[in-house]
């Protein structure tokens, strides 16, 4: 049995820097690992302390929602959590928190902290209560997809409507309304990948990127409980789920970001999973066509005269690329830049211009390639 205990302890520290256990009140009953380095206290000194004693105030609502959403047998995380500064440090540090509720240990909760960078850790939320803005959603999704392509994690985007939330919160008074919105934001963050991939789109409408392992029904159920816990049980979450997938490359993630940028540019009225799904498919098709056009040189050139303003004579011709039937290549060029094939397109344009200049009988005026 001693060997088994040591073995399981080895497994724990192979994937975590610190493990600890919480009782139903959120107090530490057991801790082992880098407690001094991370929390500024010996393991024994942590016993009886609340987890709130070491989690930064900004993330207390997030952790509370994360832990309360655990059902028997559930394992959730990791989410990005800030720790209070210790040892004279002024800056808070970030860790990945995971938690598990084993039936044989219930109602105690097993937790693990790990020091490492998560997918969206470099993208700080610009909105209130740790939420991203609508404009920040595409960057978060791109970062999460790039990470998931390397880890093999399947992702979904959930578009969430909490009809009547703002009205219900305002009816409780200003201070209580702020608390309700903070708790609801924390619940949405707790469902998102890393705990930091949720965004507010407009009043009562939100979105987040999450791991696909959970069903939308379970997510909706947890959010429904969170609404009750926040004091607005009349608000019923409505979820519109969309599977996010790419070809596994960074370019594929960038194509998805382009679709999301188009989606967001359309304004809140068109925010639905069906609309986003259609736009993603169209963007993927457009991107594949552009890549093929560049690789096979299936584009045309327009030669525009550049006139000397002093003499009125043509000085040279500027070679402009034309892709497909669209007279303006601006959108295609932006897509090529996003897909990181703009250098291939520029090279193809220059090679085409050189080939034109070598044609027999061509007039002697110089050509300038616009790249």
Main features:
371 residues; alpha+beta; five-stranded antiparallel beta sheet; four-stranded antiparallel beta sheet; 12 helices; elongated
Describe the protein's topology:
Layout: H1 2-15, E1 18-22, E2 28-33, H2 35-39, H3 43-46, H4 60-68, E3 75-83, E4 93-100, E5 109-114, H5 137-151, E6 155-161, H6 165-170, H7 174-191, E7 198-202, E8 205-211, H8 216-229, E9 238-244, H9 250-265, H10 273-296, E10 300-307, E11 314-322, H11 330-338, H12 342-357, E12 367-369
Parallel strand pairs: 11-12
Antiparallel strand pairs: 1-2, 1-5, 3-4, 4-5, 6-8, 6-9, 7-8, 10-11
Structural features, described:
- There is one protein chain.
- The protein is α+β, with helices and mostly antiparallel strands and about 375 residues long.
- It contains twelve helices and twelve strands.
- It has helices at about 1-15, 35-40, 45, 60-70, 135-150, 165-170, 175-190, 215-230, 250-265, 275-295, 330-340, 340-355; strands spanning about 20, 30-35, 75-85, 95-100, 110-115, 155-160, 200, 205-210, 240-245, 300-305, 315-320, 365-370.
- Strands 2-1-5-4-3 form a five-stranded antiparallel beta sheet, sandwiched between helices. Strands 7-8-6-9 form a four-stranded antiparallel beta sheet, sandwiched between helices.
- Helix 4 crosses helix 7 and helix 9 (about 250-265) crosses helix 10 (about 275-295).
- The longest helix is centred in the C-terminal third of the chain and has 24 residues, at about 275-295.
- The protein is elongated.
- The model has no long low-confidence stretch (mean pLDDT about 80).
């Amino acid at each position: 049995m001693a060997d088994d205990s040591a073995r399981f302890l080895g497994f724990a520290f192979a994937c975590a820097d610190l493990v600890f256990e919480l009782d139903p009140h959120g107090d530490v009953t057991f801790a082992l690992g880098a407690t001094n380095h991370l929390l500024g206290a010996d393991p024994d000194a942590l016993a009886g302390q609340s987890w709130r004693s070491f989690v930064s105030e900004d993330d207390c609502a997030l952790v509370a929602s994360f832990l309360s959403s655990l059902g028997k047998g559930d394992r959730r995380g990791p989410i990005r959590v800030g720790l209070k500064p210790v040892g004279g440090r002024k800056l808070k540090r970030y860790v990945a928190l995971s938690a598990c509720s084993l039936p044989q240990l219930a109602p105690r909760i097993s937790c693990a902290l790990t020091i490492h960078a998560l997918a969206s850790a470099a993208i700080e939320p610009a909105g209130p209560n740790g939420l991203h803005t609508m404009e920040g959603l595409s960057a978060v999704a791109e970062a999460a997809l790039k990470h998931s392509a390397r880890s093999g994690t399947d992702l979904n985007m959930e578009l969430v409507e909490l009809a009547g939330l703002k009205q219900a919160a305002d009816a409780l008074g200003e201070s209580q309304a702020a608390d309700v919105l903070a708790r609801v934001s924390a619940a949405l963050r707790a469902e998102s990948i890393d705990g930091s991939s949720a965004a507010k789109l407009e009043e009562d409408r939100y979105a987040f990127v999450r791991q696909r392992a959970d069903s939308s029904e379970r997510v909706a159920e947890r959010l429904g409980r969170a609404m009750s816990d926040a004091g607005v049980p009349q608000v019923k979450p409505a979820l519109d789920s969309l599977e996010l997938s790419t070809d596994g490359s960074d370019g594929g993630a960038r194509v998805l970001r382009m679709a999301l940028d188009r989606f967001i540019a359309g304004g809140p009225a068109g925010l639905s999973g069906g609309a986003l799904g259609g736009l993603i498919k169209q963007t993927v098709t457009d991107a594949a066509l552009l890549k093929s056009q560049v690789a096979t040189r299936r584009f045309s050139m327009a030669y525009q005269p550049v006139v000397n303003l002093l003499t009125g004579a043509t000085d040279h011709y500027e070679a402009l690329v034309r892709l497909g039937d669209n007279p303006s290549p601006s959108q295609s060029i932006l897509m090529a830049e996003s897909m990181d094939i703009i250098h291939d397109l520029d090279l193809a344009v220059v090679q085409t211009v050189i080939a034109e200049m070598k044609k027999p009988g061509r007039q002697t005026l110089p050509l300038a390639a616009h790249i």
